[in-house]
Amino acid sequence: MHIQRHFDRDLEEIKDLLLRMGAMVEESIQQSIRALLDRDSAIAEEVIANDDRIDRMEVLIDQRVIELIAKMQPAAVDLRFVATAMKITPELERIADLAVDVCERVIELSREPQIKPLVQLPRLAEDAQRMVRQALDSFVRRDANLARQVIKEDDVVDQLTVDSFRSLLTYMLEDTRNISPAIRLTFIGKYFERMADGATNICEMVVYLVEGTIIKHAPPQPA
Domains along the chain? Predict the structure, then answer.
């Protein structure tokens, strides 16, 4: 019983660390969107500077998970949690890196003339942010239904990415001076799409955690 209490406490600590990391990543996404819409290099620089904190958190979680496996040899259901934690942390770290990529492009854009108001890109960014938040919610609540819902939303983000590219291509064709900023904005759109992909990957792991079913690379189910 004493050993089980230690084990449960260690599991809870890993979960808490994951949630702290998730909150830091959500903040990075939110700030990257704000930097993009406000053309604010100072915010962008802050996101870039804070990325090391998220990297350190990933390392800390990895250490805790490895220690737990070595010490406790967890049973099947708990092992699924440990495996999920080990998969989620690198996804969160990659999403945070993508927020940094957005901010690096924002800094470059601040030195160039602004093209026409953006339409699809802000919605794409907000959808990606929401997917990451819901992916973390599904993990906290162990909600496989929510996780599957988020996975379905990835198709919407993919289409928005295509629409954003087409709109930016029109700007490039209208005026060659738009080419450089439009290309940077195209990159930004792709970064947000990849954030949504990361949220999808997290949700696939949540389904595995809850149901013990591996759905990654599985054929889509009929609606």
Answer: 2-211 (1.20.58.220)
